[in-house]
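Fill in residues.
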């Protein structure tokens, strides 16, 4: 691996703190929507090879029986892909909290997952961008996989990069057995730009 892609310990600590702040904002927005307290994990940050992405995702979120995921790409000062991964019961718990009665149809289920994912991705990544003085443009969120094994979420053949920065944070609800994971992937060129932005951020402290 090109050593220039590695984050220093100071850069990693700074990115973890920046992500913590941004995730706090995202959690607060989700808590307001769901009217319940949101618990956040400590961000996990790794530089990975494209060939090991599925292994890393399974390691981070566990090999659950089935998962559904949305994706949202972003471009601008930084570029990459964001994924929100829900377990098979995620929609049921969200629907209950948001006042849906009875069984919801597939269209409503998808809209619910897309809406919640859009809130998390937008709040978190915009929070990171604001702190780093970056600007981002987001694509519309889409369903990337429904009820598949976690190691099948990503199609390796469609990946065009060799290495990427992978950041994972998960949210849990205080009053429900619910967890969703926000994964952010930034390819090589964004890692180098991110390093410069983090260094500029640290210089201001």
């Amino acid at each position: 691996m090109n050593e220039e892609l590695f984050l220093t310990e100071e850069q990693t600590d700074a990115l973890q703190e920046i992500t913590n702040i941004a995730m706090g904002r995202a959690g607060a927005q989700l808590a307001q929507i769901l009217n319940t307290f949101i618990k956040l994990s400590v961000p996990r940050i790794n530089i990975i090879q494209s060939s090991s992405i599925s292994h890393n995702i399974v390691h981070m979120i566990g090999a659950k029986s089935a998962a559904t995921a949305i994706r949202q790409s972003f471009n601008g000062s930084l570029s990459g892909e964001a994924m929100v991964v829900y377990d098979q019961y995620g929609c049921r718990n969200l629907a209950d909290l948001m006042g849906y009665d009875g069984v919801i149809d597939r269209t409503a289920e998808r809209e619910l997952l897309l809406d919640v994912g859009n809130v998390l991705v937008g709040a978190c990544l915009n929070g990171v961008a604001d702190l780093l003085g970056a600007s981002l443009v987001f694509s519309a969120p889409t369903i990337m996989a429904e009820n598949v094994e976690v190691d099948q979420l990503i199609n390796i053949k469609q990946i065009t990069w060799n290495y990427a920065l992978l950041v994972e944070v998960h949210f849990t609800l205080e009053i429900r057995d619910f967890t969703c994971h926000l994964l952010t992937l930034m390819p090589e060129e964004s890692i180098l730009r991110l390093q410069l932005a983090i260094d500029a951020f640290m210089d201001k402290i």
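The first strand starts at residue 38 and ends at 40.
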